[in-house]
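Same chain as my last thread, 223 residues:
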Amino acid sequence: MRHTWIGVAMLVALSVARPTHAAPAVGSWTNGGMIGAGTGAFYGTAGFPGLNIGYLRGLSDTLDAGGRFSFQYGGEGSTSAPALGLKLAGDLKLKLDLNLPYGTITVRALPGIGLYFPQGFSIFLLQVPVEAALGFLVMPNLLAHVSLQVPFAVAFWSGLGVSFSSMQLPFLFGGGVELKIDQALSVTGQLHMGPYVGIFFGGPNATSFGLDAQIGVTYRLPS
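reply #2:
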């Protein structure tokens, strides 16, 4: 009996002394996934066509909400029409419950306004960009996604003694990744490209090459 108790005591001591390593949580993503209920996160990205700073909070496991401020130096992403501008938008993301075995579908919308200042003109922009993404785990700390971005907007032009309006309807295809460094910090990257269609009311239409290429960081606040 004495030897039995000694053996039990040794097992308990070893189990207490052994370091534990918690597996990275699957939730709390910003790039192709959801933040998670009760979690808030700040994120920033840089690239073409601009710089973005935003905040998201998980209102539930299927709905995130927040806002984004952008400084644009490449216009709306048309490589043939760069321009300086500012944008302010809401940020809403919804996870669709489709019970997919290997991924998660999210739909994101960023309704807001923008101001651009190409040479000789000022542009007021009403925008409703939308994105549909399929996110899937590559490793416990690496999430990838493929997605379609449609940054729809209506623009009101004024300058050089004239006023007119136009509509942008790009279709940008691509994807990205998010790598968790730890439970608070992660790095992100994504690339989308495709046709950028500009429709000028009362005038000719124009199609150019559209590009959205961003790298960034996300910092999750303690719950």
